[in-house]
Known about the structure:
Blueprint: H1 11-19, E1 31-37, H2 56-64, E2 66-72, H3 78-87, H4 91-94, H5 115-121, E3 125-131, E4 153-157, E5 172-173, E6 176-177, H6 185-200, E7 207-212, H7 224-227, H8 237-262, E8 269-275, H9 313-316, E9 317-323, E10 332-334, E11 338-339, H10 342-351, E12 381-384, E13 394-398, E14 401-405, E15 412-416, H11 432-452
Parallel strand pairs: 1-7, 1-8, 2-10, 2-11, 3-4, 3-7
Antiparallel strand pairs: 2-9, 4-5, 5-6, 8-9, 12-13, 13-14, 14-15
Amino acid sequence: MSIGSATAAPVVILLAMLSAVRAGDEGRPPNVVVFLADDLGWGDLGCYGHPVIQTPHLDRFASQGVRFIQAYAANGVCSPSRSAILTGRTPYRNGVYRWIPEGHEVHLRTSEITTPELLKALGFETCHVGKWHLNGRFNAPDQPQPDDHGFDHWFATQNNAAPSHKDPTNFVRNGEPVGPLEGYSSSLVVGEAIRWLRDLRSKDAPFYLQVWTHEPHLPIETAPEFQALYEDQTDEPGVLQHHGNVSQLDHAFGRLMAELDRQGLADSTIVLFTSDNGPEGTGAGDPEHPGSQRDRTRGSTGGLRGRKRDDFEGGIRVPMIVRWPGTIAPGTVSDVPVIGSDIFATICDVVGIPLPDDRVIDGASMVPAFSGEPIERSVPMFWRTHISSPDSRVAMREGDWKVVGNVDLTRFLLFNLAEDPGETTDLSESHPERFREMTERLIRLNASVLGDGPDWWKKDASH
Length: 463
């Protein structure tokens, strides 16, 4: 595919990196599955304490691996957090600073090094299914598409399933529009993943499978069988649709895990599950328009402050569960802070690929955290969310401490998350020295990140 707006990562960089793969490792590396939900809140799963929503497959999955209770998306909105998962770089640094409208110039450039590119060079076969949302000109020759970032097979939409999760019409498979489909998005997406696992990949090669569902992002549409799970508790259409939508997602996830079992792949595959940001909306529905799409935004932050688009905890803290049989002890709960950009570094660590040394990699390997050990970070955890609340535009976390800054970096709040995960009490006056040091570091880090990326964001008054 010809790409006029991006510069390809030099092949020599990849070859040099792969020549440094640690010697002495024998045998086939583990397969990798990254399963990403859309707008799933930190409190939306049964295993994260939701009192009503039924998620038996994810609950079982959590009992088989490690459940992180302080996991974060790399951004408070979707496209940027996805770019960080693939590159290990904070979004403004890699250029995907905002959610990407259709036709927009922002895209994930091929000068970025992605996980599937590295794994392909190591002999992996690669597949992406589901939401893409890393370019504005989807399936067009002037911006990179999934295959330009290392995917052998892809089945995707630019942003949301349209007209809704039910019977979508906007999927593209390997550059060819698929046309109208029958069914619900997560089931269709997982169905394609299963078809690839069964019929399209080489069984002689390890694989990287990326499954990015649309559920439970608007426009929500839920199969009657999943709405029926909640009919004895409420007759509110919005609640039935939202809660059922999470169960619909859970059921699709369960199908994929069952397929790994069926093919005898579960023990040789590391599976990572997480969400791209916190839940949409007010959480109270839309009383003026019951049954409308806005009435279906019933996601839970688990009591945390803020929601999607905020850099308070409710906008960025998300579920994250990892299963790696033989390495992660079943039923582990880890309170080590981790972030979406860590997924890149973690996969490199797991398969034995050194991190690129020609650019800043913000993420760090989560492998120590799989057993509750701390992670050593060269770059603090950092967030800058486009179109966020003016009062929570940037944030940085070090240890238990988090500083949150406003849009022009003139006002800041300081929180101790170990004592106050709900961010109810500003400690800037009671801890003036820590407040000063963290504020200064945040300002320096913000300038470094903005200086590293392309100039797209500078033209956007809402940045």
